[in-house]
Write a structure and sequence with these properties.
Distance between the termini: 55 Å
Order of helices and strands: HEEEE
Shape: elongated
Strand order of the largest sheet: 1-2-3-4
Number of strands: 4
Helix content: 25-40%
Radius of gyration: 20 Å
């Protein structure tokens, strides 16, 4: 019996740790600013922590293409 309880406690800890990681990732990927120059075909999204990504519209698929790591 005690082995089953230990596993349940371990699983709860794993789930709680993952919830915290997800909350942290969500906080770090909030968009703080958008910029767009007339004539450019992309938007630059500035995220929390200074990270920037370029977002292009793919007109053929009506979708967005995202490039990370610009600066």
């Amino acid at each position: 019996m005690s082995q089953g309880v230990d596993r349940m406690t371990e699983n709860r800890e794993i789930v709680e740790r993952r919830r915290q990681e997800i909350a942290k990732e969500k906080e770090q990927s909030k968009v703080l600013g958008l910029s767009h120059k007339i004539g450019d075909d992309y938007w630059v999204h500035t995220l929390t922590g200074g990270r920037q990504i370029k977002v292009f519209e793919d007109r053929r698929k009506k979708d967005e293409v995202i490039f990370e790591g610009i600066k």
